[in-house]
Structures are given as structure tokens and as C-alpha cells.
Write a sequence for this structure.
């Protein structure tokens, strides 16, 4: 007969196993509920996002939400950013349609595309931090007659557009070069526009040029085919006195469907605004008598900054209505009797006025003046922040605080990277006399005129910190 011994611990194990089973069952139930709850929440949020995206699609499709100028002339620097922001609580009409988990919201920027960026979008980066031994340079001669003086330069997406003023009426005064190999610029095309060009700007598939002739001061050149540029329209600054001779063009700036044209002093308004929404048919939109030669124009938002000769060295206009420019402020820094405002640049509220020396350099009269223009949006007068003397004068400037790139006519270091007090972090000598400067994707280009026997040249200085 076998004997059996009863294990008294069995009931304890059964209870423990029951507890474990119950715990696992509870975890399973909780996980199932959580997953179900999460899935439903994801579904509800996705539904709400879909509703909001449908609303965003309607907003984007409605051209009235954008400046009509962009809708008709979306090129050059016209691309704009509009902000779309909405929540389901604002777009769903009934509470029954809203999620039980609360409203959803989205906010994003809608970038209106620049469909012709290859022709003229501003590609200069927001940061340029040149310093010693952090840049490379290349210089090359241009196939331009030594007697054909370079007046302006614009480099966009690797193509250089150069204006000139020749002593010969048969010479071309517009040149286009492919600068993808800065050491060996490839000639693309040239054009003889007539008397010569003082300045140009590139926007979209068009060049807007300020002509030095008395017949037409504004010329618009089609460059859809860079190999065959052609003038498609011309316009003359209206005369206040019919018998007067029209002044030569001297400066130009394009902004959002309007061209701001400057001329030399004459019996006509030296500052005019042209509607070029239809480039083939420019229309005079506004005019203002400056009383002196306009050397440079820069437009930012609703403000136009005009540098010139005489006491009106820096004039600031409200151009929120381009047909009715309103003078907000005139600045006459010390030395205006002999010096002229030659160049301007504005970036993030920092406005630079560059002046020539006026012949004999007076150290008390600065050539570089930095203004704080950030308050101009509220019509508050701009204030001078700093200045310094530049014995070579300043004929080109790029503002990228804390760095300011300046172009001078001193005997050495014509291209420099300075701070607002004139402390130099990098300097580069340019062959000949620098005429103009342009920024393209972190590369700085400088064109200069050389001796009577040497052709103009172009230098490329590459920033390694772009």
C-alpha cells in the first residue's frame, strides 16, 4: 500500500496564480482600452487636420488673400510669405462636428513661389562673416573695350549683368557673362541700348536699366533668352518745362511690380516711380522733385531710401502708395557741402550710407554712416548709431551686421570687411578702380575699370562661412 502526503501550500499557490492571471487580464484590458482610445484620438485629430487643410487649400486658391501684384508679376524678389493659422473651433459650425477630444489647430507659412528665380531672385545670404584667411579670391579680365567704362553690376544665380558707358556710340553697354567658373567668365551676350547705361537691376526675366541719354531714361530689356537680350520698352521722365532737356538716368531699383528711377539734377522730378506690372508698357505712377542728382535708391517695404548730392544726401519716403510718395525725413550729415551720398544698403533695420570724400579727405566728415532704421515702420526718425572715416570714399556696401562689406577707392584693400567702427577683419586689393559690387549665394563680385590700355575686370571673393 502506498502512502500519500498532502501538500498544505497548494492553496497559496493557487491564490497567487489567480492574482497573476487577474493582473495580466487587467493589463490586457487596460492596453486594449488605451490603444482604442489612442486610435480614436488619432483618427479624430487626423479628421480635424483634414478639415483645416481643406480650409487652407481654399485660402491658397483665393488670390485675394495675396497682394495682386504678386499674382500678376511673381518674379525677381516678389515672392512673399503669408501665414495661415486656424483651429477646428473656428471652422466647424456645430459642436457635434467637433472632436470630443477638443479642437485641433494648425499654423504654417505659405510661400508664394518665385517661378523665375533663376533670372533675378536675391540670393545673398543673411550671414556673411568674412575674416582673415577664411576667403578665396579670383580675378579675371573681361572682353570689354578699355574705353567702355563699367557703371554697375548685378550677379544673379551665377550670371553677371554689367552696364557700361562708352565714349563710342557703337559700343555695347550691356553685357551678360556666365560666372560659374569665376576664373574664366563665359561671354553670353551684349547689347547696345544707345547712349549708355548708368545703372541696372535684374528682376525676373527682365533687366530694368537707367539710361544716360536724354531721350529715354528708363529701358526694360527682356532676357528670357539671355543669349539674345532685347529692349521691349522705353520711357522718358516727364518735363516740367517743355523746352527743357531731360536729365540723364543715374539710379534704379525694382520692388514688387514698381521701378524707382533716379536721374541727374534737371528741370524735372529726379525721383520717379513706374508701374511695370506689364513690362512692355511701363506707366508713370509717381514723381518727386529731389533738387539734386540721385546716386542710389533702396526700397524696403513701404520705405524708399534715396542717396544723392547736395544737402539732401539721404531722403526717406513713404511709398506705401507708390503713386503718392511722401517725404518723411531728410538727412544732411556733416560734409554735405563737398561730399555726396554714393551708395546704400539696408538689412534688418540697419541702414548704411556710403559717401565719397569730396576731394580732400576731412576726417571729421565720415564716409561710412550706420543708421538704426528699425523704428521707421512707426514713422519714428532714424538715429545715427556709428560712423567712421574712409579716406578712399565708399562706393559700394553690403550690410550684414556685425559685418559690413565696403568697396573703396583707397590704394590698397579696396574690398574690406569692417565692423560699424571701421575695424577691419579682412581686406582684399582689387585691380584698377572698383566700380560696383554684387552678392550672389555668398560670393561677392566686384567689377573695376583699369588703365586706358587694360580691359575692365571682375573679381570674385568667396565667403567660407556662408
Amino acid at each position: 500500500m502506498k502512502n500519500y502526503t498532502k501538500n498544505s501550500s497548494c492553496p497559496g499557490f493557487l491564490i497567487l496564480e489567480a492574482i497573476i492571471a487577474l493582473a495580466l487580464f487587467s493589463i490586457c484590458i487596460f492596453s486594449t482600452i488605451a490603444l482604442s482610445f489612442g486610435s480614436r484620438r488619432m483618427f479624430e485629430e487626423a479628421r480635424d487636420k483634414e478639415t483645416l487643410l481643406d480650409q487652407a487649400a481654399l485660402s491658397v486658391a483665393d488670390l485675394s488673400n495675396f497682394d495682386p501684384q504678386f499674382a500678376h508679376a511673381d518674379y525677381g524678389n516678389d515672392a512673399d510669405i503669408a501665414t495661415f493659422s486656424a483651429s477646428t473651433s473656428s471652422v466647424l459650425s456645430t459642436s457635434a462636428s467637433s472632436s470630443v477630444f477638443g479642437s485641433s489647430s494648425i499654423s504654417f507659412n505659405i510661400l508664394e513661389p518665385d517661378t523665375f528665380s533663376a533670372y533675378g531672385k536675391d540670393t545673398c545670404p543673411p550671414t556673411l562673416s568674412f575674416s582673415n584667411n577664411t576667403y578665396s579670391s579670383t580675378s579675371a579680365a573681361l572682353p570689354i573695350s578699355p574705353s567702355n567704362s563699367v557703371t554697375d553690376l548685378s550677379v544673379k544665380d551665377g550670371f553677371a549683368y554689367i552696364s557700361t558707358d562708352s565714349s563710342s556710340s557703337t559700343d555695347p553697354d550691356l553685357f551678360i557673362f556666365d560666372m560659374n567658373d569665376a576664373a574664366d567668365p563665359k561671354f553670353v551676350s551684349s547689347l547696345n541700348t544707345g547712349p549708355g547705361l548708368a545703372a541696372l537691376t535684374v528682376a525676373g526675366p527682365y533687366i530694368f536699366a537707367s539710361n544716360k541719354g536724354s531721350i529715354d531714361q528708363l529701358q526694360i530689356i527682356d532676357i528670357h533668352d539671355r543669349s539674345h537680350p532685347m529692349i521691349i520698352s522705353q520711357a522718358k521722365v516727364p518735363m516740367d518745362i517743355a523746352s527743357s532737356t531731360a536729365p540723364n538716368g543715374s539710379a534704379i531699383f525694382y520692388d514688387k511690380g514698381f521701378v524707382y528711377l533716379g536721374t541727374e539734377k534737371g528741370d524735372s522730378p529726379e525721383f520717379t516711380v513706374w508701374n511695370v506690372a506689364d513690362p512692355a508698357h511701363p506707366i508713370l505712377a509717381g514723381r518727386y522733385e529731389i533738387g539734386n542728382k540721385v546716386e542710389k535708391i533702396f526700397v524696403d517695404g513701404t520705405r524708399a531710401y534715396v542717396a544723392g548730392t547736395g544737402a539732401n544726401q539721404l531722403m526717406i519716403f513713404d511709398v506705401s502708395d507708390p503713386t503718392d510718395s511722401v517725404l518723411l525725413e531728410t538727412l544732411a550729415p556733416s560734409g554735405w557741402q563737398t561730399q555726396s551720398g554714393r551708395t546704400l544698403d539696408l538689412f534688418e533695420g540697419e541702414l548704411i550710407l556710403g559717401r565719397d570724400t569730396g576731394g580732400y579727405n576731412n576726417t571729421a566728415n565720415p564716409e561710412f554712416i550706420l543708421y538704426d532704421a528699425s523704428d521707421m515702420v512707426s514713422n519714428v526718425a532714424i538715429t545715427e548709431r556709428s560712423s567712421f572715416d574712409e579716406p578712399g570714399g565708399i562706393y559700394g556696401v553690403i550690410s550684414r551686421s556685425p559685418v559690413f562689406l565696403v568697396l573703396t577707392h583707397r590704394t590698397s584693400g579696396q574690398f574690406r570687411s569692417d565692423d560699424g567702427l571701421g575695424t577691419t577683419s579682412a581686406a582684399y586689393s582689387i585691380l584698377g578702380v572698383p566700380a560696383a559690387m554684387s552678392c550672389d549665394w555668398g560670393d561677392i563680385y566686384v567689377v573695376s575699370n583699369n588703365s586706358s590700355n587694360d580691359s575692365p575686370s571682375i573679381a570674385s571673393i568667396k565667403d567660407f562661412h556662408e
User: Anything to note?
Assistant: The mean pLDDT is 82. The longest helix spans residues 10-61. The helical segments are 10-61, 68-72, 88-91, 117-120. The radius of gyration is 32 Å.
